[in-house]
Amino acid sequence: MSKRRPYTRPMAGWWRKNPFFVEYMIHEGTALFVAAYGVVLLIGLVCLAQGEAAWNGWLAAMKHPLAVIFHLAVLAMMSYHSWTWFKIMPKTMPPVVIGGKRLAPAMITGGGLAVTAVASLVLLGLAWGLTR
Amino acid sequence: MARTITMEVLRYRPEQDAEPVLQTYELPFTDDMSVLQALLHIKDELDETLSFRWSCRMAICGSCGMMINGKPALSCKTFLRDLYPGPVRVEALNHFPIERDLVVVMEDFIDKLERIQPYIIPKAPRTLAQGEYLQTPAELEKYEQFSSCINCLLCYAACPQYGLNPDFVGPGALALLHRYNADSRDGGAAQRMELVAAEEGVFNCTAVGYCSEVCPKHVDPANAVNQNKTTAARDYFLSFLMPKGGKK
Amino acid sequence: MKRSNAPIFWGLFGAGGMLAAILGPALVFITGIAVPLGILLAPDAMSYANMMAFAQSWIGKAFVLAIVPLFLWHAGHRIFHSLHDVGIHGGTGARLICYGGALLGTLITLWALLSIGF
Amino acid sequence: MEVFKADVVIVGAGGAGLRAAIAVAESDPALKIALVSKVYPMRSHTVAAEGGSAGVVQSHDSFEHHFNDTVSGGDWLCEQDVVDYFVAQCPEEMVQLEHWGCPWSRKPDGHVNVRAFGGMKIERTWFAADKTGFHMLHTLFQTSIKYPSIKRFDEHFCADLIVEDGRAQGVAVIEIASGEFTLIEAGAVVLATGGAGRVFRENTNGGIVTGDGMAMAYRHGVPLRDMEFVQYHPTCMPGTGLLFTEACRGEGGFLLNKDGYRYLQDYGLGPAEPEPRNKAMELGPRDRLSQAFWHEQQKGRTIEGPLGSVVHLDLRHLGERKLRERLPQIYELADEFLGVDPALTPIPVRPAVHYTMGGILVDGRCASPLPGLYAAGECSSVGIHGANRLGSNSLAELCVFGKVAGLEAAAFAKAAPRSASATLLRQAQAVEQKTRALVTRSDGTERIATLRREMAATMESGCGIYRLADTMQAACDKLDELRARFRNVRIEDKSSVWNTNWLLAIELGYQLDVAQAMAYSALNRKESRGAHQRLDGFEQRDDAHFLKHSLAHYNGEAQPRIDYGPVKITRSQPAVRAYGAAGEKAEKEARHG
Ligand SMILES: Cc1cc2nc3c(=O)[nH]c(=O)nc-3n(C[C@H](O)[C@H](O)[C@H](O)COP(=O)(O)OP(=O)(O)OC[C@H]3O[C@@H](n4cnc5c(N)ncnc54)[C@H](O)[C@@H]3O)c2cc1C
Ligand code: SF4
Ligand code: F3S
Ligand code: FES
Prior knowledge:
Chain B has helices spanning about 35-45, 105-115, 135-145, 155-160, 160-165, 170-180, 190-195, 210-215, 220-240; strands at about 5-10, 20-30, 65-70, 70-75, 90, 100, 105. By secondary structure, chain B is of the alpha+beta class. Chain B has a five-stranded mixed beta sheet with strand order 2-1-5-3-4. A two-stranded antiparallel ribbon of chain B has the order 6-7. In chain B, a hairpin with a 2-residue loop joins strand 3 (about 65-70) and strand 4 (about 70-75). The radius of gyration of chain C is 17 Å and the shape is elongated. The model of chain C has no long low-confidence stretch (mean pLDDT about 90). Chain D is an alpha/beta fold. Among the domains of chain D are: about 235-350, Flavocytochrome C3, Chain A, domain 1 (Alpha-Beta Complex), CATH 3.90.700.10; about 430-565, Methane Monooxygenase Hydroxylase, Chain G, domain 1 (Up-down Bundle), CATH 1.20.58. Helix content of chain D is about 35%, strand content about 20%. Chain D contains 16 helices and 24 strands. The radius of gyration of chain D is 23 Å and the shape is globular. The mean pLDDT of chain D is about 95. At the B-D interface, helix 1, helix 2 and helix 3 of B face helix 3, helix 4 and helix 9 of D. FE2/S2 (inorganic) cluster binds near residues 57 and 59 of chain B. Iron/sulfur cluster (SF4) binds near residues 150 and 154 of chain B. Chain C: Pfam families: Fumarate_red_D (PF02313). Chain C: InterPro entries: Fumarate_red_D, SQR/QFR_C/D.
């Protein structure tokens, strides 16, 4: 009769036990803010469809101090999402070989952030130009 | 005066312990001592009943993985000088059942290794008389990193998704699967796709990335897993375009 | 072995994540901070007229259709996995909330864009 | 007790055992193979080999050159017909590994690259960066998974051979996880259990390299051949003995004494040139280099460190780029284990025990004198290494002779009659009883660690780089004593699951027997040859009396009996072993004369 009796350890609370996992949970947590922002936009879109009064109501709500504070939080988390998204990117994509040399991970992350910066400026510029 | 260091070792003796318990040892400390050497000292001088795996002492056989101060590491290349003054806590690798003390049951990994078809499935068979396949250094480079996996299982102990769902093929085995797929001599990618794309395959991974962080051989298993998500997704959508035998 | 249908959700997650990473911060800044507080952009930048014009254009419709549903799919997928991570293996329930929510959001977006007209 | 019926059982899943298993599987898929290993196959010590594996490929090279290097490197104690077979098979085996996926390093045109190695006239060492053994082992292991007829017994410890009716007919193994015994019946047994370097103190070997198979065969009456020849590797880490591969020198590294002087030129290996030259200076054979270290130490020209005297392995002039590309593992080892950046600082090194040239006596087809018992790899003495193995010949040997052992064992198993299962089982039960008695006895007093430490210190002082009659005699006496004390060993751990205390005790028993065979063989060889160098009036090679293999026969609790067997000389008559400029001169003369 075998005396083996393997012991399986519980996983409960695993993500609290290592700073790496805490960070992981935080960046996964950005999804809550992305979702919330998606819903805010969705509500705006519905209001827009319902006519000018509803839209203005939405705009007014957006001006509420709590709404602004909330959006500041969303902005922070959304930016954190950008940073972590591009930070993981070198691990998630096939190696990019340029001129026989593999592109360094920092270049990929940097490239992503650069694209974000440019896109943000373009978006702001368009918003600025179109509404002038 | 000779310095000492305290080691806290997670013990589990299935024939006497209901569950794992920490045991403390006090031992002489020198600058050049690895955690493995400390354990060997304990086994030789303090407690013959402590069990753990080891062999090469040079970070290549993959035997001596354990949790050291909460992180998966090879004990033969973790040095006490970096952990001084301690105490140093040593436990069996996370996410695996403990067989005894620092020894985990690793049959699950071996089983997975066997399932990924870790051998060349020749693209163009060749006889010995025809000599070697030609493979340029650039072609070698495509898979070399993934072929340096020593099966130490640190990445499994690092991957919460494996801990939560042991059916997940996991980073190490998927890195090896990718190693063969990426080899210019191999033509078995389609055959291996079944496992890559299966429910126990790559999509269990949520890109935690800790696997690559702890890998002692810079295999970057996270990269292998995630590259294959893209391949599996492409294959999935193509299978709608070409319903029967659409796999290419 | 059963083939996973994850590629669909993973694809949407990835697309949404990429959009959110590239455009998210700027969008939040525009709609949630700059316009409400009237900094940098004209206070009436998002006036009814402006926004209707935008939402009635093809480009505007495409933009909205990309942003809103993909943000929701991205978030839904991530939240679904996070629930699993913290030990809530809701199965169908969690699936319904996360992906069902995203699907509902997608349908509402479509409906709204249609009713805004061209 | 569980019983598993196999056709061929292979003990050891390192390079040799895996190659044997694949050979059997390919020869006849109907044959059932049991592959036993006390560790998971990829943990086997083949994994640690760094430098490379020999096989003639270049057009200006030839089998004849490889033959000559091997035979002279072995100081003419080689079986020349076996060496002929060996060198002719090497290239094919290396190509076979290539077909199985081994990531050999390549030339820009896609062909396999080769590097220089100590004692080899022409570059013929195939390599996979500096992790050749690792890649070969994983390639073989992963390829073996393809064959359903190979049933692995991973983490099963072989406790003894089952010999019945004058034939090896199986093995008794312990499942380490449970402590339970299994009898594996088989028509033939292949031993591929590796070397025995751990009987010495400072060594490059893994903890599992304890000579188990050698001791098992020996105890069943198979002689151990040429056991006095133990190779010291000249460039190892002080203290731990971890290896810095010979490839460091193949790539152009220098050995410097405390004055920064390339001292090898003082030992007949010169002249010192900036570029590496085959068979000269740092690329001389290992025995010569280790001996030169010893002399430097005597002259007080080594550097004294906390872990013993060292010399410097200087790689600085190779530059970080080349080091990272060609010697990545060495770079990491030096950096992480010693805190030395080899691109900036020379690495402190000293010789350590590395390889056991001798082993289980087998013929050129890997058959031992005990019918049904085959051996391959480092545990065997097939006759290609003689008194000193050349680097990179061993990995090639694993493939060439692993295959031979597998094929021969398969053929034997098909033809051999089998004894009744009940008889075999009774034997296995006796093995179980005897082995368990180690644990269950309660009156033991000798500690394993103490015995092991004394054994290792004894071997180092008695059978080191240079040997003297009185220290060898002292070593023999001490080993007799240790074997007696071992019979009174105490095992603290009485449990069944993963009881390594118990396994270590069994291994220590094996080691003591092997150590004794080494020490007595050494004491009796009254000459200097290859790795066996004496300083007590026997400094010269003595072909008249000792151009023969020593054979150690097991003699129970008494001392081993040493006698001698002939050496097969076909066409290379013993000559002076010369390296460096002197070697080239001698060779030229031989060609013209
Ligand atoms: C650091 C180092 C570097 C080296 N570099 C080179 C090189 O560059 N070139 C070269 O040619 N050679 C080199 N060598 C030598 C060469 O690597 C070895 O001789 C060779 O790998 C031995 O292989 P093997 O298959 O005989 O044994 P191993 O690989 O040692 O395998 C032994 C097997 O037997 C099993 N075993 C042992 N005892 C038992 C038991 N009681 N029960 C069950 N199983 C058991 C083990 O589990 C293992 O699977 C090197 C050696 C070392 C130590
Ligand atoms: S991928 Fe890295 S961490 Fe995982 S088993 Fe292989 S070597 Fe170890
Ligand atoms: S840690 Fe696990 S979740 Fe993926 S990136 Fe690595 S396999
Ligand atoms: S002992 Fe081999 S990897 Fe640590």
